[in-house]
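Entry:
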Amino acid sequence: MKKIYLGAPLFSEMEAAYNKMLAKEIRANFDVEVYNPVENEAINDKSGYADSIMIAEGDNAHLEESDVLVALLDGPIVDPGLAAEIGYFYSMDKPIIGLYTDSRQGSYGNQQKLNAIDEIAESQFSYVNLYIVGLIKKRGKIVRTEEALIQTLKEVLG
């Protein structure tokens, strides 16, 4: 059975709820095992205790067993732990699919938005670190919607 690692920020109720919903959606569409770190209370229940070695070894073991990394890129910056997971997974030469749903992508044909790029602190666009983007694109692709994610997973999983 194929295994998908769902990498994402997971520290707010909103993040945890979204991750659980997305894992459920993937499971409903594919006969795969989804590792969702939110569901791993042994190392991610923040009311308990897991030290840095426990977290690194736990997540790395799941990354090593996984066939695909789905990386949720939304937020003010890519979650630092996710950025490390992307780099680790990239080094294993396995496919990575980034999901980036930020509504500030694209100009939507609005010239004012394009003109604002040259004004200090007036950019209307979101930003994702280009090194992270490059790693993902070298191993897979970045999609904007959950529907596109499901379609891309169909292509990657065969």
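The beta strands are 3-7, 33-35, 68-72, 96-99, 141-143.
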